[in-house]
Design brief:
By secondary structure, the chain is an alpha+beta fold. It is built from 9 helices and 10 strands. The strands form 2 sheets. Strands 4, 5, 6, 7, 8 and 10 form a 6-stranded mixed β-sheet that branches. It is 34% helix and 14% strand.
């Protein structure tokens, strides 16, 4: 399959269409799945029916059952190249409130190395092979042919946006797009730092005299797991660190109580993987957290 070519203009027919939609239709015609971004440069939130993924999610979110919602739901998973969807009433209403268009790099067979500041740009120019470059507000997007798993904060000021992620459309950029190099892939699979066991003074909840966990109640435990999931889901950067700190907090509270079940751990891992973490990284973070607490 040939890779889509990012087009040189964001204009199309129909002057009555909102500018972000005209840009989106031109990108979609080039095979680049697009979605609208609202004020704050974030995707539109799910509708009430889809809140909390109650609908089952989109097929490309690897959830059970396709979502039939006609609206702009599920963030990056809503990205499409279908002009009929993009110009449907629900989507047109969103485009009229949108501030810009975004695209799903991974679905287009692309990877964006998002360089957030001048230091990150300087590092890229010394380390990465030349490719298509798009200027951003504070840094640059380096775009390569080839998809991979998205990862945030792979190094200071550097995020990788590809599958299960979105990137703002900021113009075609300059330079010739080249193949995704191994040096970028290696950034995402780098081994986590070795964690030294914590000193014996680490505070852990003590069990009751009868050996019964002092907080083994459905309400208390459910609230704690739900808060942990929310903390991971809300992470906008440093996802690796957020996942580790969240696992550490959960284990420090429940690690020696017998509260945690495989179901709870699966929920935490699922929240992390929805943010782009791999199963291996989840396992490593969990193991490191246990080691830190001496469990």
């Amino acid at each position: 399959m040939t890779q889509p070519t990012l087009i040189r203009r964001g204009h199309g027919s129909g002057s009555a269409l909102p500018e972000p939609l005209r840009t989106a239709l031109t990108l979609a015609a080039a095979g680049v799945p697009v979605l609208p971004l609202r004020a704050g440069k974030t995707p539109f939130g799910n509708c009430r029916t889809c809140a909390g993924n109650a609908c089952g999610g989109r097929p490309n979110m690897k959830s059970a059952g396709p979502c039939q919602c006609p609206g702009v739901c599920h963030a990056w998973a809503a990205a499409t190249t279908d002009p009929h969807v993009l110009t449907s009433p629900a989507w047109t209403a969103a485009w009229r409130r949108a501030v810009t268009a975004a695209y799903h790099p991974g679905a287009a067979g692309l990877t964006v190395v998002d360089l957030d500041d001048t230091a990150a740009v300087a590092w890229a120019r010394k380390t990465l092979p030349a490719t298509r470059v798009v200027e951003t507000t504070r840094g640059e997007h380096w775009i390569y042919r080839g998809a991979m798993t998205s990862h945030n904060a792979v190094r200071p000021g550097v995020d990788i946006k590809s599958t299960m992620s979105y990137a703002r459309w900021l113009g075609p950029g300059a330079g010739t797009m080249t193949d995704l190099p191994n040096v970028v892939r290696v950034l995402a699979v780098k081994e986590p730092p070795t964690v030294r066991p914590a000193p014996r003074s680490v505070s852990l909840p003590a069990g009751s005299d009868g050996g019964q966990c002092p907080h083994r109640t459905p309400v208390f435990l459910e609230r704690g797991i739900a808060m942990a999931e929310q903390r991971i889901t809300a992470a906008r950067s440093a996802v690796h660190a957020t996942v580790y700190r969240t696992f550490l907090a959960v284990l420090s509270r429940h690690g020696r109580c017998g509260c945690l079940t495989d179901t709870h751990i699966t929920r935490l891992f699922a929240a992390a993987q929805a943010k782009g973490e791999t199963a291996r990284h989840c396992t490593d973070a969990w193991t490191n957290a246990r080691t830190t607490l001496g469990l």
